[in-house]
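Q: Hi! First time doing this. I have a protein sequence and I read that you can turn it into a structure. Is that right? Here it is:
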Amino acid sequence: MAKFISPLTDVGFKRIFGDKEIMLSFLNSLFEGEFVIKDLEYLDKEKDALPGDERNIIYDLFCKTDTGTEFIVEMQNRSQLFFRDRILYYMSRAIAGQGMKGDNWNYKLTPVYGVYLMNFSISSDGHIIDDVSLYSKEQLKEGIKAKPFTDKVRAITIDMHAFNKLENKCDTTLDQWIYNIKNMENMTSMPFKDKNNVFAHLETLSDYYAMDPEDRKVYDAALRRSRDYYATMESAKVEGWEIGHEKGRVEGRAEGRAEGRAEGHAEGRVEGRAEGELINKIAIARNLINMGMNADFISQATGLSIEEIEKL
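A: Yes, that's right. Below is the predicted 3D structure, encoded as structure tokens:
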């Protein structure tokens, strides 16, 4: 067993970033030069369904700063279809949750920031941090210029796959945080603790062998689920690709004999690939069902509708 728990697991992430000192250090390193958060409180992570909606949503961590700004902080290990839409939906729910009953509410909102640490890439530009606000375009005399529509909704994604700095090149506190988060499970001692006391605290908090037996048991179960999920997804991808590839070859040969081998083979490959992708999604969904995942999670992971999942 590794010396430190992995922040890439649900339990590990919440244990580490559920600590106020660590969360304050991380957020202040992320927004250094913009503002300083002096204090925060953790809020209920579960948002009840809105009227007419059957879905509750659960954030990884949800907190409010001393100035009232709300932060959704999440670790995302696996790529999802419509990931950006999911971010917008979750942040919109936090905004909607600020609504007050009665006639004396004037719609004044506090900002909601979403911070998403991603163990996958959603863009190919190589950027580590993508900082997005809501914008509208306004026609001005000198041309079209982007003008912020609101400062109340802001999403920051951190692509850990794009972060490749060596330990001795991590000059900022944010670099040090990302380096530790990405590499912690393989470390034997915590870097940067001689520069910043928060990393000495992180070393103590994340020490697997210092956890009490019950906490270790919960973490071990989460780690197994994470590894099982990864193995299941990889297996399903291979299975779906092989089935789709073989179907494409067979249909391509048959079509090719009737209408010309080259044209038919290409068409068969395309159709087979599309059907293979669907088979892949179904295989993944069935495996996730067997792992006890709920339909909403499976829908987000595969792109299948709730109704399609319920028929499996």
